[in-house]
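Bug #77: duplicate submission created two jobs. Keeping one. Sequence:
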Amino acid sequence: MVGSARCTFGFRGVPAGFTLLFSSLYFGAFRNCFTMSNPMISIGPRVRKSSFFDATRRAGCKAYSVYNHMYMPLYYESPEADFWRLVEHVSLWDVAVERQVEITGPDAAQFTQYLTPRNLDQCSVGQCKYVLLTDENGGIINDPVLLKLAEDRFWLSLADSDVLLWAKGLAVQGKWDVEITEPDVSPLQVQGPKSTDLMRMLTGDWIDGLKYFWFRETDIDGMPVIVSRTGWSSERGYEIFLRDSRHGDRLWDMIMEAGQPLQIGPGAPSAIRRIEAGMMSYGADMTLATNPFEVGLGRLVDLEMANDFCGKAALTTIRDRGTSRQLCGLEIDGPPLANEHPWPVFSSNQQVGTVTSAVYSPRLEKNIALAILDNEHAEIGQELKTSTPDGRLACTVTQYPFYDPKKKLAAA
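Kept job's structure:
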């Protein structure tokens, strides 16, 4: 191992977008956390490192995951301490693993629309859109944030999957006149209730007028960036897309220094906060085996638009036929927990679903989870059981999001 950083295997449960692997070390207070074997991942040259990687090591990152073929920080002080800093102050995240797929060329707009079932006709230059990418069967390939830089230039800011290869394959097959690349772009996220105060120090007063899910091209002390009013925390926040990786250390240090009066600290996408918010993690809560209607994202599918998109025929059939399962919220009894693997959910002795992501919320003082359940067992208030390493625990179907359901904090 290099230095003291630890890399651990685990479940995809944090996100981005966005999607992260979760560690069995995630909650140091768990009863079994240090009695289990915790395999290590050695840090080496094969897995890519972000332009902020050295800065995260200096900042004391205690665990990394591998995400989009890169190392991604999981937590610093502790997952719970990082959570409280995020929701009370301001937190700086290295999310350079959130790779950009850039689509340019004469067919860029038409091809980008072909990738997603969300209607992009009203998307303006300077605007971001949360979109789904679907395959020919209607399965979900990824759930990126789309940025429209020009009428013929788009970025897909990715969760964890090889969308670059998928997009290239579709473009070649369809003979689209586009160029598809991964540009030199390294995102940071500045998240938390004090994030606007910090961004004002870095960019000036114009930041106050930046609307939710819009962005602006600018620079910070000569470093070329795009700043967007987005993030994966469900708190007020911003993303800074650094467009020259040589400046990674300087940008990180500048933000950390500016944020000292605001009690800034390093952090990473918080599994606690994202599950509180009902934010899905690709690879855990949605995969190629799920379609948008099953996970409550039918609003992102426009089957009536004139434009074609990949999976349109399949999704039309799914909509007309209906689905047999749906994403639900659960509260789980017992001691604080987090899942490394999906857990089966039972009614009596019949499996009726799967817990996809679970975590203990210190703010809500309960275990909360997302689960895919058969429709007949998805009614709010229904009592079920889930099989965990501590045995079968009682759980109850409940509303989700569990906290700030209207996302007033993020959009304020």
